Automatic annotation (TrEMBL):
Chemical reaction(s) catalysed: 2 GTP = 3',3'-c-di-GMP + 2 diphosphate
Spans annotated as Disordered: 362-391
Keyword DNA damage carried by entry: no
Bilayer-crossing regions: 27-46, 52-72, 84-102, 108-131, 143-168, 180-201
Identification of the protein by name: diguanylate cyclase
GO CC terms: plasma membrane
Leading EC class: transferase
Organism: Pseudoduganella namucuonensis
One Gene Ontology term of the molecular function aspect: diguanylate cyclase activity
A GO BP annotation: negative regulation of bacterial-type flagellum-dependent cell motility
Length: 391
């Protein structure tokens, strides 16, 4: 059952790797590691068909690879460089040690101890990784707890092999310790996989949420993400009465860039512009791509003069022609601030858009600020005396 479930989980992880391998690292390594565990089980079952020593050597080698690849996958998941030297050094030492105690100087207890202590190296490395780089979340803590338990089980088996003889650790004999280890080994093989997949699922959830609120090309917010950011900032600023300013940025003659240099170069220009906008803003500000070559910026607690300064920084950061790796480009920018607490996002966007079109009409490559509309004036009350007053 453990072998079948490991094979099934390997397929699930490989499928996730194909779909989200760039965002969630390590799934492919874990899938390959599970296949190695399946191969080890098959090799062990064939020990009566194949030469027994060949089957045992293959079983141990595949187990080392499976456990080691899970370590590599965990390192990649947490964004750490894979320890390939540790991987190759440990499994080679394990195969040579097991081979020595199996073929040259047969000693079952030494063979079990060698395997256990070297497998412990792989598990302990993952425990250290979770402690140093794991997020404070249930899925990560659950994975770390299982790794710690598995490390203790493997280490205990190695110590028992040296201290109490081989009978207590031989999984082919009917003993309490051996049965307990066999049950734990099968249980942990599945639970560790489930725990890692739980962490991966949480990471996938974050990735999917990001995809729903961010532009895939430039990485800035999309319309949906911008609307959320606006509502949050609007609620915060409304209570304090502080201003909120919005700017719409449009690349001038962007179609000519695509026609002359190709759409791939056009995409690079958009990415550069998005990065230049983000670098010109504060951390509390937000930038979004509304489609095509149009970007929208939300400036929290900023008056129009501050927005104009930010707009000029953006214009200065754009590619400037000869000597630059990207084609020269300019932008037109329209700026508007909330006229009142009752003004909606659509109304603010409309006034900023009108300022943008004024910038386009006035020659492009410039900044225009929308005038704040005057508040509506209440009609004068009618005279109480009316026509009864004499002339």
């Amino acid at each position: 059952m453990t072998t079948l479930m490991s094979g099934a989980m390997s397929i699930v992880m490989y499928s996730c790797h194909n779909s989200f391998g760039d965002e969630v690292k390590g799934l492919g390594r874990w899938a390959l590691g599970l296949l190695c565990v399946v191969g080890a089980a098959v090799a062990f079952m064939l020990r009566d068909t194949l030469p027994p020593k060949v089957a045992l050597m293959a079983t141990n080698a595949l187990l080392f690879w499976g456990i080691g690849l899970s370590m590599i996958g965990t390192q990649e998941f947490f964004g750490q460089p894979p320890s390939w030297r540790l991987f190759h050094g440990t499994w080679l030492a394990g195969v040579l040690g097991v081979g020595w105690w199996l073929l040259v100087a047969p000693d079952f207890m030494a063979r079990v101890a060698t395997f256990s202590f070297l497998a412990f190296v792989f598990y302990a490395a993952q425990v250290r990784l979770v402690l140093r780089h794991g997020a404070r979340h249930f899925s990560t803590r659950f994975f770390g707890a299982l790794l710690t338990l598995q490390s203790a089980v493997v280490l205990s088996r190695g110590c028992l092999a040296l201290l109490s003889g081989g009978a207590s650790v031989d999984v082919l004999l009917d003993s309490g310790v051996a049965n307990l280890y066999l049950a734990m080994a099968n249980f942990m093989a599945l639970m560790l996989t489930v725990a890692f997949m739980t962490m991966a699922t949480r990471r996938l959830q974050t990735v999917l949420e990001s995809r729903s609120t961010h532009d895939p090309l430039t990485g800035v917010l999309n319309r949906r993400g911008f609307a959320r950011a606006y509502e949050r900032q609007r609620a915060l600023l409304r209570r304090s009465g502080r201003p909120l300013t919005l700017m719409i940025i449009d690349l001038d003659h962007f179609k000519l860039v695509n026609d002359k240099h190709g759409h791939l170069m056009g995409d690079r220009v958009l990415i550069h512009v998005a990065r230049a906008i983000a670098q010109a803003l504060r951390e509390i500000d937000a930038v979004a791509r509304f489609g095509g070559e149009e970007f929208v910026v939300l400036l929290s607690d900023a008056e129009p003069p501050s927005a104009v300064q930010a707009a000029e920084r953006i214009r200065a950061a754009l590619p400037g022609g000869p000597g630059h790796r990207l084609p020269a480009c300019t932008v037109s920018i329209g700026i508007a601030s909330h006229a009142s607490d009752e003004e909606s996002l659509d109304g603010l966007l409309a006034r900023a858009d009108a300022a943008l079109y004024r910038a386009k009409a006035n020659g492009r490559d410039r900044v225009e600020v929308s005038e704040t509309p005057a508040p509506a004036t209440a009609p004068a009350p009618a005279s109480a005396a009316g026509s009864d007053n004499p002339c």
